Amino acid sequence: MTQRILVLPGDGIGPEVVPVAVAVLERVADRFDFAIELDSALVGGKAIDETGSPLPPETLAKAAESRAVLLGAVGGPAWDDLPTLERPERGLLGLRAGLELFANLRPAILFEPLAEASSLKSELVANLDILIVRELTGGIYFGEPRGVEVVDNERRGFNTYVYTEHEIDRIARVAFDLAARRGGRLCSVDKANVLEVTQLWREVVSAAANDYPQVELGHMYVDNAAMQLVREPKQFDVIVTGNMFGDILSDVAAMLTGSLGMLPSASLAADGSGLFEPVHGSAPDIAGQDKANPLATILSVAMMCRYSLDAPDAADAIETAVHQVLAAGFRTADICPVSPGSDIQRVGTEAMGRCVLELLE
Ligand code: NAD
Ligand 1 centre and the CA of 108: distance in Å? Predict the structure, then answer.
């Protein structure tokens, strides 16, 4: 069966890193014998310039018909003065909502050759491999009522932190399934000592655990989880949490690895289709200079193979190739030590892509 993939390069360094990652996808499809059909469309600032909208209806329609979407990045100074609802980032939010992508997967993997890049001691983070599963379409970011009102002559701001049982259950099951395929440990993060909504979260996650006897479930308050992530991050395997806590903890975990240019992500819908994108933005400061690190986008393609295309061997091969490229000493500027030794070779975006492709031969 041929699987449709929509490619959305977007803005800034997106059109530089995405073609490199697409070449990797085509290479593994060929080598591991699965059929893909690629299409591309406009999103973000470029879409605003050409159509007036950050997410043209044609793009959303194509995305909905695709098994997976590969996105580069959106945004940049040219569109910074637009009103919030018309900015390039609305294209991304529109895709998440339109495709009902409720499960956001953010791995924090530290490839051993880059252990020095972390702000933590290298022994704490070498070979780190944790996965944060964040609920993406509910919680306090979407809860109603919300707003700012005047009460007793002063302004009062309010938001609502709300989760239904089914929203908690479906994200818990995604996380249990992933933990069962990895190290078999799941830590659910909440604030059940203070917030009723997260007491319900803890109850529903615990009930779902009955269907996953092979997974060891633990619970942690969010403040402790933040401390533990920087104290002893390797104690975690998979973490599952709500939208706001996940937003914060996934950025903490990301920084353990030291470089934005290395971080992939996936956002999945209930049928296993998904949107795959690097965590970084459009990096306007280096756009068009062949300096961007394409590895985050290449690793996003690995996630696509694993989670949407049912090609785990291809995912493993891509991750192994990235590890080998780093071990061989190739570095883009963002991950290159200030005073590189003779065994380190600084390369640009395209050359880094060619190194990965060669190892996938
Ligand atoms: P950014 O991630 O684009 O850049 C932050 C810093 O990291 C910059 O110095 C940049 O050069 C560097 N960097 C980022 N990716 C890199 C890569 N692959 N290789 C080497 N260096 C890399 O964040 P920002 O500067 O805050 O935002 C720039 C634009 O991107 C803004 O318009 C913002 O709204 C947008 N943005 C988009 C997304 C997205 O599309 N998902 C995410 C974040 C920011």
Answer: 18
261 touches ligand 1 (CB under 6 Å) = yes
Q: Whole-number mean pLDDT of the chain?
A: 95
| Class for the domain spanning 1-102+269-361 | alpha beta
- 234 as an active site residue: the answer is no
**How far is residue 63's CA from residue 95's CA, in Å, rounded to a whole number?**
8
Q: Which of 282, 291, 350 to mutate to test the pocket of ligand 1 (most atoms within 8 A of CB)?
A: 282
Given a contact cutoff of 8 angstroms between Cβ atoms, the answer to whether 106 and 275 are in contact is no
Question: What are the tens digits of pLDDT across the range 180-213?
Answer: 999 999 999 999 999 999 999 999 999 999 999 9
Q: What is the pLDDT of residue 30?
A: 97
Q: Is ligand 1 within 6 A of the CB of residue 8?
A: no
Beta-strand pair 36-40/147-151: unpaired
Give the pLDDT band of residue 257 (cuts 50, 70, 90).
Answer: confident
Q: What pLDDT, on the 0 to 100 scale, is given for residue 116?
A: 80
Cα–Cα distance, 304 to 320 (Å, whole number): 15
53 lines ligand 1 (CB under 6 A): no
Q: Which one is catalytic: 33, 223, 285, 310?
A: 223
**63 contact partners, CB below 8 Å, separation of at least 6:** 6, 8, 41, 69, 95, 98, 99, 275
- With cut-offs at 50, 70 and 90, classify the pLDDT of residue 258: confident
Instruction: Return residue ranges of the chain for CATH 3.40.718.10.
Output: 1-102+269-361, 104-264
Distance 225 CA to ligand 1 centre (A): 26
CATH number at 104-264: 3.40.718.10
* Catalytic (active site) residue 169: no
